[in-house]
Amino acid sequence: MPGEFPNVPGMTRSRIALLIDADNAPSGALDAILDDLASYGETNVRRIYGNWDQPNLTPWKELLHPKALRPMQTYDLAKGKNASDIALVVDAMALLHTDRPEAFAIVSSDADYTPLVMHLRERGVNVYGYGERKTPEPFVNACTRFVRVD
Fold this sequence. Notes:
Elements: E1 3-4, E2 12-21, H1 30-38, E3 41-50, H2 58-61, E4 70-73, H3 83-98, E5 103-107, H4 114-122, E6 126-131, H5 137-142, E7 145-148
């Protein structure tokens, strides 16, 4: 059930599931992303995916507790494979059918999420995408709204 806006009787806030691909997103943009999402609703779910044993995720590690991000550990089972991408997609589908958020925010510059975004949109869910300028157009165009964050 969406939460109510303070001081506005009957007006509800959308529940947003924020899913971050830590390998393909800039940590420095998180505050701007959270501020933008606050204009659409409340980010009730905040998950970030990656292999937390890898040193390249250190900038994200520093934000986990201050920004209430739930780290989702995905080990590199085989070199060059996208375990984090698969875990994010599986969680998105589970959230769609269990928690039923009104919107998803996907933070990544990876076009592999395009089919997921299209699937969510077909089910009437808004998808806000955030990524760098290098983000391929299919992902950008599939989102309800896409914001470049570099």
